[in-house]
Amino acid sequence: MTLPLAPQAIHEIPAYWAGKTPDAICIYDSGDTVSYGELWQRIERAAQWLDAQGAGPGDRLLMVGENCIEMVVVLFACSLRQVWPIGVNARLSPRELQTIQEHARPILSVYTARVSAAAKEHAQQAGAVPANCPALGADLLYALAPARPQAETGPLVAQVASLIYTSGTTGAPKGVMVSHRGLLHFARISADSRSLSQQDIAFAALPLSHIFGLATVLMATLHAGASLYLRAQFKAEDVFEALESPGVSILQGVPTMFTRLLAIQDTDRPLQAPKLRYVYTGGAPLDPTLKREVEARFGQPLHHGYGITEYAGSLFITREQTPRADSSAGYAVEGVELHIGPLDEPSRPAGERGDIHVRGPGVMLGYYRNPEQTDEAIRPGGWLATGDIGYLEADGALFIAGRSKDLIIRSGFNVYPIEVEAVINAFPGVRQSAVVGRTLADRNEEVIAFVECLPGITLDIDKLHEYLRGQLAPYKRPARILTIDSIPTTVSGKIQKQPLKAQLA
After folding, report:
1. Model pTM?
2. C-alpha closest to that of 297 among 331, 264, 330, 337
């Protein structure tokens, strides 16, 4: 659905629907509902509260929390005042939070204590006090910076919609400057790709501090004037309840979310999802076994897409009317250009792997206060180096082979971990796996697999090795298979391989 206006900033979307359908439900949050009209009133009052705290154009605001109406209100109030919001998941450690805070230099920090015990703990450490702003709720806490940081100036002030700090950052933090233009462009594309309408209800447990939650879930849903079912954290039981009532129609999440949903399925009770019509996963490569199992459980095609934090939304999405049977990330969305391989050479032909470069309206404005890494990521001509490896099929469908940094070179051969993981995940009793490389004394690498089993399953390692001998070339087979209680993930649900590599070291 296309709005009958060309918005320049993200707050113009809720403002439009507040004028057109003020009584329509915008958000379901902790048993309450908030209409578009009420949401906009709260946004305006919250913007006045920002004025009272001295926050203005070019200032940064740190938003520590988990999904709730307060986060949505603060996000759009910041847009209204050209303050740059920095959404941070409250489950980060104090050290991780401090690193971001020292780099971003916010004038103001807010904490969503109502829905998040972790946010409340951070607030206590910061000496935060109640905001005393009805628009923000009774339990939103805030703390002002001891000394006012310098506000940003220049053309970027009006262009930046949000700063998103990339997960798993080590060393100098990387704050992605996400533009209003990019978010608005993708909100329309995402809404169109899902045929979103005002009758839809989208499930929202993905953190709004993550580009998936912010762009694909929040912005696309509101662009269509639809409703959002907000949850502070992902709990599989909440999904099944929401599917039944109020009747979630759009279910989106990272692959690990769907893995958890399958783990608690009740085979004796039919799935109650009377309005479910679209199921989508992104944020990580899609495992073929997971795709088959999700489709069997939910009775819907599992759509897939490819996006990164440095691009405001998905770059590739499968087509709603013609779902694919494979695990492709789909086709380029409007405005996206793709180049596979070195930029000084022609793009690789179909079927040939290479580094993925993209450009389009969603490319970030840069890494905040980090021109060196910005220049490394955004190449001449506006091409963004994604750090991913992929290839195209003849029909233009993209397949992700993995991250460049995760590539394993075994005896001169390239081993792509997701290929090995897909084979392991198809073995009975395996919930999910993570494959990493370990460097040997001769500088060669060996393949190591970490495996998380389904509850109550004891994996027969010898049988798994035997199975893999019939499925993989010798250089792709894991030298060791290690069982693990739970494969580590980021707060947004992506598998983390660095802790596994550290464990091997």
Report:
1. 0.88
2. 264
